[in-house]
Specification:
By secondary structure, the chain is an alpha+beta fold. It is built from 9 helices and 13 strands. 41% of the residues lie in helices and 25% in strands.
Length: 293
């Protein structure tokens, strides 16, 4: 199964939508590099579609996303009266398509030498199937109909905002179909480990302790977290501790040594070193950037 991987933020955004009824003998128009994603949701009959070297039979209750940088076309005429909703969307962020699940989180940080934000941007991967049987087709159809009804007023900022919210709900419906399938042993192990690390980040956690706590071998845990989160358990824990330390730096007047202890570091020097590595600035200077006067 081909998956589209969208790096978020920024969020994919809605452009336009519509409805098409056809008779037997209809062929979907051939298009090349249309520069937008084209979501097709079939409500009646079947569309016979091709994209590049792949072909699809999209039946009622199913959805297909055609990529913006490829050639798509009808592989043959409709055999019966058919109907479908279409929806165009795009993203200004990075996206890719592959047959494999991607890491779910991409950790970000502020570049060295730049004024840091209170929190570094943490992007993540939103995965959506190219072709899927919808779990709740009636709900998706209702949402697309809402978008179409709002279309008459999309010159208004308030309406455009509502359209984007509805569109994100449609994206969630699409991804839900693979999340049901995607709950693999690897993902379950990675999520258990991540939950344990976040809950106990103040403690001195060893690989063996982590393994015993969630009943998986430490080597397997490391492999699962690398696949699902793109980092080792230790790196995940370290980054989370740094994020928590930023909250304490801004919300208290605690000393650096006390903050280090509060978030699970054994020494102030090691905390300072790690903070500077990930944030490009020392904890003290970070606090001063947001201090009044």
């Amino acid at each position: 199964m081909t998956l589209f991987h969208f790096t978020v933020p920024p969020l994919p955004h809605y452009i336009a939508s519509g409805y098409t009824e056809t008779s037997a003998g209809f062929k979907h128009p051939s298009r090349h590099r249309i520069q937008v994603f084209d979501l097709l949701v079939v409500t009646e009959g079947c569309l016979f579609m091709g994209e590049g070297e792949s072909s699809f039979e999209v039946r009622a209750g199913e959805a297909l996303i055609l990529a913006p940088d490829n050639h798509h076309y009808a592989t043959k005429e409709c055999e019966e009266a058919s109907a479908y909703y279409w929806l165009h969307f795009q993203t200004t962020g990075y996206w890719a398509a592959s047959e494999e699940y991607a890491p779910r989180i991409i950790q970000g940080r502020e570049p060295h030498g730049l004024n840091p934000q209170i929190f570094t941007t943490q992007t993540f991967i939103k995965q959506v199937p190219q072709y899927t049987k919808l779990l709740q087709p009636a709900k998706v159809i209702e949402q697309i109909q809402q978008l179409m009804e709002l279309g008459h007023g999309n010159h208004l900022s308030s309406v455009s905002w509502k359209q984007q919210i509805i569109f994100q709900e449609i994206m969630e419906q699409l991804s839900a179909s693979i999340e049901m399938q995607g709950s693999t042993p690897t993902l379950q192990c990675a999520e258990l480990a991540a939950s344990y690390l976040r809950k106990n980040y103040r403690e001195d956690i060893t690989a063996q302790q982590l393994g015993e706590s969630i009943n998986f071998h430490p080597v397997y845990i490391a492999r699962c977290m690398q696949k699902e989160f793109g980092c080792s358990p230790f790196d995940f824990l370290l980054r989370f501790r740094i994020q928590q330390s930023k909250l304490v730096l801004l919300q208290t007047n605690y000393t650096i040594a006390r903050i280090a202890e509060e978030v699970g570091f054994n020494s102030a020097a090691y905390f300072t070193s790690c903070f500077a590595k990930y944030e490009g600035i020392s904890p003290r200077k970070y606090r001063q950037r947001f201090s009044h006067g």
